[in-house]
Design brief:
The protein is an all-alpha fold and 132 residues long.
């Protein structure tokens, strides 16, 4: 009488590879949109600075289109970063929100900044008037 031995396969969990903290931080910034925004903003500023030196009309049209596309991407990633700050209800970082509103430089962000500064001034005046 023969007995059959069944080989049981052991399931060994895969080893988690070591991740460099700098790589993790860079990936988080990329996912969050901050790094991409900074890259697009830098490219947008460089392209905009080169625009007055272009004399060829076809190249000028292409550069303007590139600048427009970079601006659209900046708006997208800037909005993504601001939305992340806006949805954070646990640790609201007003200084970070103000900083990113200044970096994005669009009409809606300028209006939000103006509203913030206006309301901040009114509250300061209100709090100072009660102390007399």
């Amino acid at each position: 009488m023969f007995t059959t031995l069944m080989a049981h396969t052991l399931i060994i969990p895969a080893r988690i590879p070591y991740k460099n903290p700098v790589t993790l931080a860079t990936n988080w910034l990329r996912i969050n949109g901050k790094l991409i925004f900074s890259e697009k903003r830098s490219a947008w500023q460089n392209e905009t600075a080169e625009l007055p030196n272009i004399t060829d009309s076809l190249l000028l049209i292409q550069k303007r289109e590139d600048i427009r596309n970079l601006r659209l991407e900046m708006n997208y990633y800037g909005e993504k970063v601001l939305r992340n700050y806006d949805q954070d209800t646990v640790a609201i970082q007003v200084d970070s929100i103000i900083h990113w509103l200044q970096l994005v430089q669009t009409y809606p962000t300028e209006l939000r900044l103006a509203r913030h500064y206006f309301l901040k001034m009114i509250l300061l005046l209100f709090s100072n008037s009660g102390s007399k």
